[in-house]
Structure formats: C-alpha cells, structure tokens
User: Fold this.
Amino acid sequence: MREQPGSWTRREWLAAAAAAGLAGRARAAAPSSTVAVARCESYDHGVPEALKTLFDQIGGIGKLVSGKTVAIKINMTGSLRARTGYRSAWFTRWTHPEVIGAAVRLIGEAGASRIRIVEGSSEDDHPLEENFLIGGWDPDAILNAARKVEMENTGSLGLGKEYKRLEVPGGGLIYPAFDLNHSYAECDVMVSIAKLKEHEKAGVSLSMKNMMGAPPGTIYGDAAGYDEPAARPYGERSMFHIGNRQPSEGTPKEKDEKSPREFGYRVPRITVDIVRARPVHLAIIDGVETQTAGADAALEPDAKRKLLLVKPGVLIASLNPVCADAVAAAAMGFNPTAARGAAPFENCDNTLALAGEAGIGANDIGKIEVAGTPVDRVRMAFREQR
Assistant:
C-alpha cells in the first residue's frame, strides 16, 4: 500500500473512486430545496426576526417538527478555551448562542415535543452545559427558550446505555455504518446549525461538515480504545483524516483499507457517509460574524494566509444541507461546483459535489431557488479580505 498521497497514480485514484461507488454509476438528479438568505448585521438584535423569516420562506417548519423530538447539532469545534486573537470562539468559529437560542424558541413554538442540543467534545465528557460555561456563555437562556430543552455532550456514551449503529444506505463510500451517541438515533428531526467558515484542508466547513463532530471520540478519536470504546474522548479524529487506524473493536471498519490515506480524499467522503447515515432535515448557517482562512483558532505553522475576523452579516437556512452549503459557499465568493484544485478545494475533493453525486442534494446554485436577499447582495469574497 502506498502511504503518501502524492505517490498515487491517476489510475489508482480512479480505481479507488470506483470502488467507493463514485465512478461508472448512473445517478438520478439530486433533489433541490429552497434556500432562504437574510441580512443580519449583529447578534444583539434582529436574529429571531431574521430566522423566523427564513423559516417562512422555506415553507415553514411546523410540519417538520410538530410533535417531534428534535436534535440540534451545533458547532463548538476545537479547544474550548482557545480564541482567535482576543475574540471569543462564539464570534469566530462556533455557532453563536443567539442563533441557537432563536432556533430553539422557533422550533419550540412550531410544536416540537422535545429539543436536544448536541455536540461532541474532543477534550472531555463534561455536560455540554459545562462546556458552554468554559467557553464563556451561560446556557440558561437557551435551555429556557422552549419547553423540554436538553443538552448532551455526544463525544462519549453520555446519558445513553449503549451506542446506536446508524447504517449508510447502499454501504457508504468509506464506512458502511457509524456507532453514535444515542441522541442521533433517538430523534425524529436532525438540525445542523453551522458557522459560515473556511477549512484549511476541506475547503469549507458548513452544515454538512458540522456533522463530522457527531461520531464520538471514544470510538473514532485519537484516544479511542482498541478492544472497546474509551471511557472518555480526547484528541482529534485522525483516523478520519489520514486512516492511521480503525475504530474500536466491534464498530464497523472501513470498507477498503487500501483506499487513499489522504485528508483531501477521506474527509469529504466520510462527511457524505455521515450525512447519509444521519440525514439533516434543516440546515442553518450562522454568518453574522466569523473568520477567514480556517476553522480553528490557529492555522498550521506553514500557512500562507492569516486568520481574519469578518462580519458577513448573513443567515442562511434550507431543508436540504447540500443546497444550503452551496448557497453559503457562493456567498463566500466560491464556486460550489468547483473541481479539486480550484478554490476553495485546492487540496481536497469537493464535498458538495460528492454529496450531489450521492443524491443528497443539488450543489449547483443555478438549480436552487434562493428566497429573500439575493446572493449577490450578501457576497463577501473570503479570499479577498485583507
């Protein structure tokens, strides 16, 4: 097996893609869903009103959530204490609590019977409420924004008695199934609230990439047990990134351990596998404030760009995560259909295109109805920020 991605020939890459189910297979057109876009200049005012308008413009959420258990996957990636400069992570790389709270209230008003906010820490098995506090935000207002609101750190077994296996329809590109915290199985509706941001190695990190935080670190993290899941999570999910090992014993392994061990090949496909195993029914993207160049508080030492704090002033919502991410990418100044080698996918395959090929949703904005504010009026070219 060749360990270095640069040593792979074109024939080997095509063979690997074919084995993953991407080559030589006719596919039906990916579904398209309306994406609503709204200007929102500040977290201090206008978030609930903007989000309500977005929900109305995508056809309402009452039928989706009424009487249902709703899981809301937020984004609190990376270190809980790290800041970009002196700016709190809520304003730079995490889903802002004002957006979370507004979504919880509106979902509650639409009739949800239970709302569970979830995120998997790579550092600890603290209650998620505690991680909010460590990050500098009191979660009390969110927990009281609707009736029966809960939080769970899904980086480990959490409050469940066992991990739940979610299979990828058709067998998956890299993994055939995932063992996840019970919260991802014990819900009727899955909501992904992501930050509008770039990713150094994956191009963009939006509502689909947000779901990469669902698999628990106890099984897929750097400190995952070999014979069984670890008691606590710690470290990144390097096995997803470079395929250096397999998950804990008893959990489904990769389909092909000879496939490329390269981040830019693996992560886009694993993202698609996760979203197919645990479909996202409502995608919300927080672009009120964010950062450019990367998804974490610091870039790699040899990075050619710098993290910059920016205020795009936009919120985006859709009932389809691929459509939402495509419009979000366009709002960032990128072509959501770009091939590997073109910005922002210089070093990776295009997750949005792979998701489109997998039939999850359309990634061509020419095939997506955009409601509310036109994309041209909210576009902020991330690569042109200085």
User: Anything to note?
Assistant: The two ends are 43 Å apart (CA to CA). The chain is about 25% helix and 15% strand. The chain has one domain: 30-374. Residues 263-277 form the longest helix (15 residues).
